[in-house]
């Protein structure tokens, strides 16, 4: 919104003038129910930057990053069939840590800007607890690729993980509609 003295308020086109900070209020207006095109756009942007971040993580990660990833994987095993909300938090933590390990200043900030939407969608995703084992296997594979500094495999596994997640989320959403 632009306010001009003696003229009034003008509502700006959020696509031209907005930023990621406007996304959450727009989504909340619809009760955290995303339009299918916005949902697909979120998946597309995640594929773009998380895949690249996974590759960079394999190059730039530290021993501390590996320890933290290992700790998250251990926690996931304990939560695997228990609480979708807690699993969603661990999932976010895992992906966020990969963003940090990438060495790219903006990747963690970008993922954090989606945090509330991410947690909502991932909690819905994990409401089908049968998916946990598959995702945690991907997390293990990704951890191993990052640990051995295999950039190509890290990117490949992240792509597979995100594509699997998108397909499963679509099924869960369609089932709940």
What does this structure look like?
The protein is mainly alpha-helical. It has helices at residues 14-17, 23-29, 36-60, 63-79, 84-101, 106-113, 115-125, 132-147, 151-176; strands at 2-4, 8-10. A two-stranded antiparallel sheet has the order 1-2. The longest helix is centred in the last third of the chain and has 26 residues, at 151-176. The protein is globular and about 60 Å long. The mean pLDDT is 85.
Q: Per CATH, what is the topology? A: Four Helix Bundle (Hemerythrin (Met), subunit A)
CATH architecture group name = Up-down Bundle
What is the level 1 CATH name? Mainly Alpha
Percentage of residues in helical conformation: over 70%
Give the overall silhouette. globular
- Beta fraction of the residues? under 5%
End-to-end Cα distance, whole Å, is 34 Å
- What's the multimeric state? single chain
Rg from Cα: 18 Å
What spatial order of strands do you see in the largest sheet?
A: 1-2
Largest sheet properties: 2 strands, antiparallel
**CATH homologous superfamily annotation:** GntR ligand-binding domain-like
């Amino acid at each position: 919104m632009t306010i001009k003295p003696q003229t009034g308020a003008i509502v700006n086109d959020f696509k031209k003038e907005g930023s990621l900070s406007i996304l959450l209020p727009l989504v909340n207006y619809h009760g955290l129910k995303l339009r299918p095109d916005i949902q697909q756009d979120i998946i597309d942007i995640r594929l773009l930057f998380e895949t690249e971040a996974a590759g960079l993580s394999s190059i730039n990660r530290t021993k501390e990053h590996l320890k933290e990833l290992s700790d998250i994987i251990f926690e996931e095993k304990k939560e695997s069939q228990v609480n979708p909300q807690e699993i969603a938090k661990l999932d976010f933590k895992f992906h966020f840590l990969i963003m940090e390990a990438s060495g790219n200043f903006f990747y963690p900030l970008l993922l954090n800007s989606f945090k509330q939407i991410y947690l909502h969608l991932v909690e819905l995703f994990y409401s089908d607890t049968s998916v946990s084992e598959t995702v945690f296997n991907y997390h293990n594979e990704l951890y191993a690729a990052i640990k051995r500094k295999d950039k190509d495999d890290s990117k490949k596994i992240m792509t597979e993980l995100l594509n699997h997640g998108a397909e499963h989320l679509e099924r869960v959403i369609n089932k709940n509609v």
